[in-house]
Amino acid sequence: MHKQIEIIYTLSDNLKCRTEQGVVDLPANTLALFSTMDLHYIFSEPGSGICDRYVLYFSSSFISSLSTQEINLLECFNVSQLKHPILLSVSEKQRENYIQLMEQMISYQKNASSGQEFKENYGYVLHIKFLLGQFLLLINQLYYQKYGYMQEGIYHSHSQIVMKVCEFLQAHITEDVSTDFLAKQFHISKT
Fold first, then answer.
1. Separation between Cα atoms, residue 8 and residue 27, nearest integer Å
2. 156-163 long-range contacts, Cβ below 8 Å, gap at least 24?
3. Which of 24, 50, 106, 125 is most open to solvent, judged by the fewest CB atoms within 10 Å of its CB?
4. What is the rounded CA–CA span in Å between residue 162 and residue 40?
C-alpha cells in the first residue's frame, strides 16, 4: 500500500501482480492503475528475464489543481466497484505517445535533481504537472473506452470529496479522527 497513486506501464510481458483477489498477469503495453488503497505486490517468476517497465508515483494533491468540474484527472482511480488493479491495454499506435510523455517527465526530474542552473530548471514542476496531466488525460480516455463514462453529476462532485477525505485520513493516520470531525472539516454530512 502506498501514500501515493501508482501507475505501472509494462514494456515486457513477464510481470505479475499479487492483490487481495489473487495473482494477475501484466502483459506488455499494459497500464496498471493503483489507488492509495490498493494492496499489491509486483513481481516476476525467477528466470523469466528482465522486467522492463515505467513506474509513476504521485500524490493526488500534486495533480488535483489541474482537474476541473467537468474533468477529474483522477477519476480512473476513484471507481471502487471495479476489480483492482485496473488494467488498460495500450495499442502499438499509442505506445510511443505514452513513452514519450514518461521520458519527458523523467528528463525534467533528472535535470532538477542534478543541480543544474536555475534558469535551466525554471518551471520544471509545472512542466511535470502539465505532462502528467496530459498523461492522465490519455489514461482516462482508455479508461472510458473500456468502462464507459461516469456521467452522473453527483458522482463527479462526490468523487473529488472522497479523494480529499482519503488524502486527509492518510496524512492523519495515527490520529483519532471521528466522522463528526470529518463532517465539519469537509462541510459534508457525517452519513
1. 11
2. 156/69, 156/70, 156/72, 156/75, 159/72, 159/74, 159/75, 159/78, 160/64, 160/67, 160/72, 161/186, 161/188, 162/78, 163/60, 163/64, 163/74, 163/77, 163/78
3. 50
4. 21
Assess whether pLDDT exceeds 70 at residue 121: no
Alpha carbons 27 and 14: distance in angstroms, whole number: 7
At 171-187, the pLDDT tens digits run 788 888 888 888 888 88
Q: Is 73 exposed, middle or buried (0-12, 13-18, 19+ CB in 10 A)?
A: buried
Which contiguous run of DSSP H or E holds residue 33?
A: strand 30-34
CA dihedral 110, 116, 117, 120 (to 10 degrees): -40
pLDDT of residue 153: 47
Q: Please give the grid coordinates belonging to residue 175.
A: 490520529
For the residues of 104-141, what is the DSSP string, one character each? Answer: HHHHHHHHHHTT--HHHHTTHHHHHHHHHHHHHHHHHH
End-to-end CA distance of the chain: 26
Residue with the larger pLDDT of the pair 150 and 25: 25
pTM, 2 dp:
0.76
Whether the CB-CB separation of 78 and 35 falls below 8 Å is answered with: yes
